[in-house]
Write a structure and sequence with these properties.
mainly alpha, single chain, 78% helix
Length: 530
Amino acid sequence: MIIAHHPTSVFSPTPSPITIDNHSMTDTPHPVKVSTAADKARGQAALRATMANASKLSIAMAITIPLGFVTRILIPRFLGVDKAGVFFFAEAFPNIALMLLPLGIPAYIQKSVPPDHGHARVILMPVLVLQAFLAMLLILTVLGYMQLVNYERQIIELTAIMAIYQTLTIFQTEVLLNIFVSVGRINLVAVINVASKLLLVALVLASLLYDSSNLHLLAAAFTVAQLAIVAATLYRAKVAGMVGKTMSASVLKGVIQISLPFFLASALANSSGTIDMAVLSRLADFHEVAYYGAVMRIQSLFLLLIPLMASAVTPLLSSTYARDPEEYKQLASQAMRILMIFAFVFCMVNIGFGHEIIALIYGQEFAPAAKVIGLNGPVVLATYISIFLVHNIVVTTNGHGLVKIVILGFLLNFGLDYLLIPIGAKWIGAGGGACGSMVATLITELINMGLLIKLSNNTVFNKRATYTLFMVGLATVAFGATNSLWFDLNIVTRIALFSLAIPIFLAATRLVTLSDLTEFKQLISRRGQT
């Protein structure tokens, strides 16, 4: 696996024909290689490269997250609850269909491109053409359904514009940037991410200042910004030699045959929120959509480690599994434990400071959303675990079991929404429908997590990882059940107690030790390869 950035093109102008090897994509690992002094040297270099890549991505995220935070504050504050609910719905609703668009191709890229960079030239254009055609069919299906059930014309138009934006976003993140990451072009990925966020914030701010009541103009700002950055990324791909002229149906067929088992895996993190907003718009009103959408945007801030994990950790795990499945289990278990601990802290922040977060970001008009954000804490924890397990399954299996899990989760969340949204609206009042949706999401995520743990077949959860999951789960339930006592304290006291209690808990339960970090570093050092 090559992690380090390449200052020049990594693609040959005339690559040799690439054959898709179905055997290499199965569960059978490659033979274990005997470690040598050269392997150790390459491992040390890989450790430095991995840390450097993570640092570059972290710096980029330190820039893009505040910028994204600005848009999340500005849009609801400019629009108000009524219009924000409509916009959140138009942004989310197309994803019910577009979640099928990736077709599992990101998993194929992660498996096939790192060991053979020239393969990107073979698959990029066929994949984009296929996805463009499929996106057109999916968008027309969504708009046809909305027309059939008599959504207002303005909402249908707004949804159409945002559907184009979501399609371009999928092209960018799931295919183009995924390929750049797979060939080690981390510097370029970081620059593109920052540039895209700067452009988006500039256009969104301009549209809000010009006419904050015009939702179509705001949607156009999102779409134009994404279109510009996709065009720029495609140009960089062409310069790097990734854009081939061949449109091989046989290559595309091979990609789809291997990718299809993973085609619903990417929906795990997105389907629940999308379904919830769609059902809320029918069973409640756009106020409830606004409250739920506001919390979901805050949730995306707390899921900031996921792109870092996908870019810096998953390729390393894939490389390790290819050479030594037993070593992979140790590395994956350590990574899972570290991720759970960070996710646990994020979970506690949601539960313990939800009222202040909503008031600070959105203002008092969105106060009912504070009832929802406390429930979001356990969702964040379960989502982190589920997504890591999905990455593990992508690396270690053919992915067939994922399809059943995601279909079950989709249907379960849909049914729970219809059951819990009316109950929440009746018993809680304002924000109650959104609370019902969040409970439905939480139940679905927990069931998904359990099924994914079983499907992983002990490749991630050894005794220590299982103990970590039990302790953070127990602490989450205990804190969530008693947080009414927490809110009787003033904010300064709560921050001080939080800052002391979390480290003491982690140390007292031995969830975090210095030897853990040392062992994780050694595992990476031994099994990395440039």
